């Protein structure tokens, strides 16, 4: 009888091959007291382990062919940089001295402290950055306790065509395994926004995470089918099922080839409507992926990562260097830089200290509220963004606006910073476009006000849906209520689109809804013409746009907007998506 094990598909594609199980095993760590006269020896042991971890990563990096895209090796470089970071190298040394404990325990304490910071973040993308800390810590930990790492850069044959099963994989291991020719992988840990997941999509590796497979269910050498689209691993299948999946595999490979041909084509509907298709990015590898996918620019550049996992606040010059690097990479394409979206729900140790503990962080002092309260944090970023605008087409976007008074404060501060830069004879674009994110229901209901006063708007559906439906989108108890098709959500989106048209202010959508092909035709029918999506979704969205006629979808979209019955909304969406 066939076996089907479900998980979360983090990339597209089907892989068929023999199972190779990577036995990683758990690492048990206990506290041990170190005699005072041996503390420095323990510190030396820890530092040797860090150096060894660094050497291992360099060996892996050097084993990957030079033809490998730069964004793939960047993942390994990120981990190498983390091995230089004092949060992982100096902090455990201080703990060993203070507590007179073993290096393993000091590293565990520091890892747990960093993990707590990431766990408290609301943004799922930033929250999964904890995985990178875990990957680097685990590499050091295995060296400390004498366990070998389980990927050998020199072995290029045993994994060719295999489906790898593992507890977890680091980006470095994933890149190396792909170089060794694996067909796909399945892990127990990880999520769709983790670095390993992003890398899997970039490499075109079918992969599933969040599974639990016991050895008696699937054994080494078993032939299995990995269906990343459905998030399923199939074993003991009959020959008819195997033939069908091989047919689907060929069909998907043909579709991917066809999608790649769209890269340099404009996003135009079947009846000639020009759609602007740009990308959401944060890290350098995202920018490069956006360029490769043919993005017309960057519609959302998140800046929070500059402030995370550090004890100090990045100064104006550091921020400017980062922004100019991206502007240079884009070679004349426009970029929209979102100002800092930190707060009580996205903690950073660089954030201004406060004794206040918010009872509801998602509704607390965050984003523009935090920046207006702490202008010493905000002004350097405004200066850096404005100065970057002298070197290319830079737009600035303000997150979580909710009132006219708030917007007036922001605009006054921007004007003040402009005058300051002018007095200092520093170049910037006086007419830099300023936009606002519509992610609070009050802002959507006041969309005409914001469209009048701003150059453009961008709908952040992740928060707009959360706040409209009064649910925490990261709380497993209520995530079933998170519904982009709720009538209230759709009507708020339509209000924003209509307000933008009324005042000639372009309206984009940068939330996850924009990158989901299930909603593309509906959004086009509602009048949306600017989509900002993850680079990996860009070609799929463009393909739907090419096969859609605005004249055909507008009527059904209007019918959906008038519906209150969720079943009828889904039925009509199905009709729309079959056109």
Give structural notes:
This protein is of the alpha/beta class and 579 residues long. It has three domains: 3-23 and 151-234, Phosphohistidine domain (Glucose Oxidase, domain 1), CATH 3.50.30.10; 36-145, Orthogonal Bundle (Enzyme I, Chain A, domain 2), CATH 1.10.274; 267-577, Phosphoenolpyruvate-binding domains (TIM Barrel, Alpha-Beta Barrel). Helix content is 47%, strand content 12%. The chain is built from 22 helices and 16 strands. It has helices spanning 39-63, 70-82, 86-99, 103-119, 124-127, 130-145, 171-179, 195-203, 239-260, 284-292, 316-330, 367-373, 375-388, 404-423, 441-445, 447-453, 461-468, 487-502, 520-525, 538-546, 550-562, 566-577; strands at 3-6, 8-9, 14-21, 163-166, 184-187, 207-209, 223-227, 232-235, 276-281, 298-301, 335-338, 394-398, 434-438, 456-459, 507-509, 530-533. The strands form two sheets. The protein has an eight-stranded mixed β-sheet with strand order 1-8-7-3-4-5-6-2. Strand 15 (507-509), helix 19 and strand 16 (530-533) form a beta-alpha-beta unit. Helix 1 (39-63) packs antiparallel against helix 2 and helix 2 (70-82) runs antiparallel to helix 10. It is globular. The model is unreliable at 344-351 and 353-357 (pLDDT under 50).
